[in-house]
TrEMBL record:
Pathway: Protein degradation; proteasomal Pup-dependent pathway; Protein modification; protein pupylation. The active site is at 57 (proton acceptor). It catalyses: ATP + [prokaryotic ubiquitin-like protein]-L-glutamate + [protein]-L-lysine = ADP + phosphate + N(6)-([prokaryotic ubiquitin-like protein]-gamma-L-glutamyl)-[protein]-L-lysine. It comes from Glutamicibacter nicotianae. Keywords: ATP-binding, Ligase, Magnesium, Metal-binding, Nucleotide-binding, Ubl conjugation pathway. Its EC number is 6.3.1.19. Mg(2+) binds at residues 9, 55, 63. GO terms for molecular function: ligase activity. Belongs to the Pup ligase/Pup deamidase family. Pup-conjugating enzyme subfamily. The reaction mechanism probably proceeds via the activation of Pup by phosphorylation of its C-terminal glutamate, which is then subject to nucleophilic attack by the substrate lysine, resulting in an isopeptide bond and the release of phosphate as a good leaving group. This is Pup--protein ligase.
């Protein structure tokens, strides 16, 4: 595909900490958080004026789904916009709680596991051609996704057989299947539910639910960018290595727990490469593919450089090569440095607290944001680009139409509903506009509907 639609769905961890002893359940905290949303949107599941979706997911997890994006930096800016929206809801909820006599703080975390061991996800969406045989694509992509945690895991402290250790991924230990239509019950690497949010005759949506949530923008760039490149290689039919895994779920756990990248992975054909070798094979294949066909956007060289540098860092065990760019390496430096300075074991509760606080999205509290202010974590987008994404949709996708419709309906005080492909005016005749093209930025039917909303009293 010359252009691809990308989307990210991030579930946030939510915790209320009282200072007056009056506790709130997660359900109560979430209800307060979404009260202003329900007030104007009549629901806890709404689309915003920047084209994104904000809703309350299973388990009282606030979730933000970016608008349709067709550029990597655009996607990163819109993902960061989700943090801004969530922080605004936190401020409003804390004010409301204070008025009700509660003294406490709401904390939101961009991570993937809570203290009780429950996992919540960061789901990636990629528009792919319908003509591609989905099973073949999944078989060829899963080896990359299983070993991708070397590139873009968020890092985590776990206790395994009485020993606390630092691992690549928060999400890996919570995956149970390679491919499935479920998202919570069996938690597969790839979800097969066929909801393209586009013309199903031509497109399908690849729904990847194995990835860790990322605080680092450079990690996000590598995660989405490298996956896009591997998909392009698969779509071209030019991939010549059979890397199908004998047991993806066993492998994903073993790889996460081995910080050397030398975990041996048994393939269906009987070969036993290491996780690092699988990544090198795919990296070199992608690099050769790009050399033959050229880059399709201006971030390809950046993605390739970061991919190669990260593999070199794991291979050499010199994490200083990437300790400003890759979440697991940034956090590893933070935790190990603190442990050495204070003579702490990895099992120390203080390190567990730092491990969590790294993911606090509040810029004044979160350790990642502190590191970023000190020049110890890299950026991809500017504050101005994030603010632009908060206030405006991507101008190059269908999100621009959704935004235009929602803005007009709200400006005219009209009742409306919208989802990824439908826009409906509910206060009068006019019906529903169906927009199946995710690349569309103009639609005469929507213009007519907006004109109708402005005319009717």
């Amino acid at each position: 595909m010359d252009r691809r639609i990308f989307g990210l769905e991030t579930e946030f961890g939510l915790n209320y900490v009282p200072s007056d002893g009056r506790r709130l359940t997660p359900e109560d905290a979430a209800r307060h958080l979404f009260k202003p949303v329900v007030s104007w949107g009549r629901s806890s599941n709404v689309f915003l004026e920047n084209g994104s979706r904000l809703y309350l997911d299973v388990g009282s997890h606030p979730e933000y789904a970016t608008a349709e994006c067709d550029q990597l930096k655009q996607l990163i800016a819109h993902d960061r916009a989700g943090e801004v929206f969530m922080l605004d809801l936190v401020d409003q909820a804390e004010d409301q709680l204070a008025e009700e006599g509660h003294e406490g703080r709401i904390y939101m975390f961009k991570n993937n596991v809570d203290s009780a061991g429950n996992s919540y996800g960061c789901h990636e969406n990629y528009l792919i051609p319908r003509k591609i045989e989905f099973k073949r694509l999944a078989d060829m992509l899963i080896p990359f996704l299983v070993t991708r945690q070397l590139l873009c895991g968020a890092g985590h402290l776990i206790t395994d057989e009485g020993e606390t250790k630092y691992v690549f991924s928060q999400r890996a230990d919570h995956m149970w299947e390679g491919v499935s239509s479920a998202t919570t019950r069996s938690r597969p690497i790839i979800n097969t539910r066929d909801e393209p949010h586009a013309d199903a005759e031509y497109h399908r949506r690849l729904h990847v639910i194995v990835g860790d949530s990322t605080m680092s923008e450079t990690t996000q760039l590598l995660k989405i960018g490298a996956t896009d490149l591997v998909l392009r290689l698969i779509e071209s039919g030019e991939i010549y290595h059979d890397l199908r895994l004998e047991n993806p779920i066993r492998s994903i756990r073993q790889i996460s727990h081995d910080f050397t990248g030398q975990t041996v992975v048994r393939l269906m054909g009987g070969d036993e490469p290491t996780a690092l070798q699988i990544q090198w094979i795919l990296f070199e294949s992608v690099k050769e593919f790009i050399a033959r066909h050229g880059a399709h956007h201006d971030q390809v060289d950046t993605v390739l450089e970061l991919w190669e540098r990260t593999l070199n860092a794991v291979e050499s065990q010199d994490f200083s090569l990437i300790d400003k760019d890759i979440d697991w390496a940034i956090k590893h430096k933070l935790l190990m440095g603190y442990a050495r300075k204070n003579s702490l074991e990895l099992s120390s509760p203080r390190l567990a607290q730092l491990n969590l606080t790294y993911h606090d999205i509040d810029p004044q509290r979160g350790l990642f944001h502190l590191l970023k202010r000190r020049g110890l974590a890299s950026s991809v987008v500017t504050d101005a680009e994030i603010l632009q994404a908060v206030n405006n949709p991507p101008a190059t996708t269908r999100a621009a139409l959704r935004s235009k419709f929602i803005r007009a309906a709200r400006a005219n005080g009209r009742r409306y509903s919208a989802d990824w492909v439908h826009m409906k005016y509910e206060d009068g005749p006019g019906g529903i506009v169906l927009c199946k093209d995710p690349f569309a930025t103009s639609n005469p039917q929507i213009d007519e509907l907006i004109e109708l909303m402005g005319q009717q009293q």
